[in-house]
Structures are given as C-alpha cells and as structure tokens.
Amino acid sequence: MDQKKIEQALDACYDCIVSPETWPIAFDSIAQAAGAVTCMFRSRTNWAMLDLPMPESLRAFMTDYEREGYVDNDYRAAFGWHLLGRGITLIDHDIIPNEVRRTHPLLADLHVRHDLPWWAGVGFVANGHGWALALLRNAKQGPFDRHEQKRLSRLAPHFSRVIGFSEKFALGGAKSSLAALEHLGAPAMLLDRCGTIALLNPAAEALLGPDLKLVQRRLRAAYQPSDRELQSLLDFLTQPGLFRAAHVAAPVQIARLGRRPVLIEAMPISGLVADVFRSLRAILLLTDLDARPALPTELLRAAFGLTAAEARLASRLGMGESLDAAADSLGIAKETARAQLKAVFAKSGTARQAELVALLARLAPGRRKVLSV
Q1: Which of 23, 107, 200, 356 is at 20 to 30 A from 186, Cα to Cα?
Q2: Are 281 and 261 in contact (CB under 8 A)?
Q3: Which of 93, 280, 328, 320 is nearest to 173 (CA)?
Q4: Calpha distance 250→271 (Å, rounded)
C-alpha cells in the first residue's frame, strides 16, 4: 500500500463532499492505493446496494449480487457487521473458515465468477450508523494480510468524517428545498432512511394536532384506517430500490374530526438534493383540504385590471373569507370593502361573490410544483 496514493485517495474523498458526482473516481483511487480491484461503501441499514455510489468496475458484480439474492445471504455481512459497525477493520481470515469458502454460494460461485475472491472491510460509524468500506481483490492479487489490515484501519476516521459531512451537506440542501416550498405556501416534511421525520417547515408543523402527530419522530394518524395507509406509505418509501425503480406512491388521506382530510403525497428526494448516501428518502407534501391558497395579487391585477387594493380584497375572498372578515384582515372599513367588491365584480364580469370565488378558483395554480433546487 503506497502512502502517497492513500493520501491522494483521501483528498479525492474529501472533494466528493461538495462534488458527489466524483465518487466513482474516488473509489478507483482508493482501490489502487489499497492494491485492490474495486471498492464501495456499505451501510448496515437495509437498502439496495445499487442505490449507493460505486465505480463502474463493481456494477456487474453488484447487479448479480442483488439479483441472485445475496443481500440476505451474505456470509461476511452476517458474521462481520457486529464488528464492522463498531469501527473494527476485518479481513477474510477473521471471519471465513476454509470450509465455508469452499461451499458457500456467494464465496464459491459469485466471487469466483467475477474473480473477486478476497475482501477487506474498513468499519466505521457516521452520524450514528454503522458503515464499512468494502475492498475486493482478484485471485492474482491475493488476500489482505495483517499488516495491510492495520494500515487500512487508520483510514476509518477519514471515512467517518467524509460520509458525515456528505450527509450534512445533503441536509443543508434539503433545508433549502423546504424553505422554497414554504415560500409557495406548501407544507412539507423530510423523511429519512429510518422512516422518521428529519425536518419539517412551519407550514407542515401547523397541520400537526390531535389527528396527525409526531410520535418519536414517526408520523402517526389518530384514525386507525388512515394510520394504516400512512405507515404503509412510509414503509414503501424506505424500501430498497425505490430510487432506481422510480415508483410513484399513491397519496394518503388523513381523516380529521369535524374537518376535511389532510392529503399526504411523497416526492423522492433525488433531483432535489445531492444525497448520494440516501440518508434522506423523500419529501412529504401535505395539503389541507380545508384551506384555499391565496392567489398572487399580481396575477389578479394582470387578469382583470384590478387596482392593488382590489386585488388584495379579491385574493382574500378567493381564500374563502367573507367580505366582513376580509375587510378586518386588510384593516379597511366595511363600506370601503363593499365599494371595492363592486369594482371587482365589474372588472371580472361577475355579479355575485360565489360566482367570483368560482372564477378565482380556476385561476389557482397547480396544487403542487416540483422544485429542482
């Protein structure tokens, strides 16, 4: 193992924090420095390995690994994760008896078929989750020895920082997405890989109450049929393979006592933030079916030639407020509001408030806009 190459590989990993698209190049650098064919990060959290960044040199192997069911029949994972997850570096000689190497399908077939029989795992913890850098060698390169194992273990603190910072950068981008949704008046929550709520904006927090609440950061509904559908949605969003399969989950209605339901829809996080390690899974978009969004006054002025004051009144009426309530909200006299309403009727070609509200409803923008932040 060349120390200079190791330092260059670590530099490449740190660069990936702000340029996550360069991870395949960094993996190649790590593999070359460690005298391996290829490598990738693995998490103890149960998700599809193909969702994680990896070098192209590993793609065919990992495709067969997942397709042939070795995710649930991986000898190294079964006997090594309790040590890797505590930050211990392992090599094959630590956990694989010779008899198992000759007979276990993963070791005797898949690894031999792809000429990747030898393994080392650099265990570490990032943000409270167990991780490992898995390094693979071919038959000609031979197994990792104890000296190499000791040198590899020194890399664990670097990998812990790199993934920890990468996840924090992704969270920062997600916060910006929530803020943008808040600006549009859209209540939204961030779902993490454990199925719990990592963040929510003030508009979403305002919808929490006796009918919809957070219990130990898990979103729960009071009405049992609604809660069953909600938990099914959350489980779906954290299942393996969601990102590459591009599934679309059906929205869920959360029943509320004496009020219309809250509608919950899910939008995969990919495309919004560069979360290559999938600490975040989806943005949940919430719609209060009792609420009507305010129409932008600029839109009303352009559509009907209203004055600024008339547009503000029309916007409040479009939200379902009565004329008296709108006058109070705007701080104007009721007589002034009635005069402005007559002007709005004339300019919009309507004669009654119900007719005006129906017309304004047709101007409302699509209930949700997908942001690309």
Answers
A1: 356
A2: no
A3: 280
A4: 20
Q: pTM, whole model, 2 decimals?
A: 0.65
Helix (H, G, I), strand (E, B) or coil at 188: strand
Confidence band of 372 (pLDDT split at 50, 70, 90): very low
Distance CA 92, CA 119 (A): 6
Q: How many CB atoms lie within 10 A of CB 238?
A: 19
Q: How many CA atoms lie within 13 A of 82 on its CB side?
A: 5
Least confident stretch, 178-187, 297-306, 344-353: 178-187
Phi and psi at residue 250, in whole multiples of 5°?
A: -70, 145
- Give kind and range of the element (H or E) at residue 111: helix 111-113
Identify whether the C-beta of residue 26 lies closer than 8 Å to the C-beta of residue 116: no
Q: Is 296 left (phi over 0), alpha (psi -120 to 50) or beta?
A: beta
Q: What is the DSSP letter of 21?
A: G
In order of their start, the domains of the chain are: 3-154 (3.30.450.80), 167-288 (3.30.450.20), 297-363 (1.10.10.10)
Distance between CA 66 and CA 85 in Å, rounded?
21
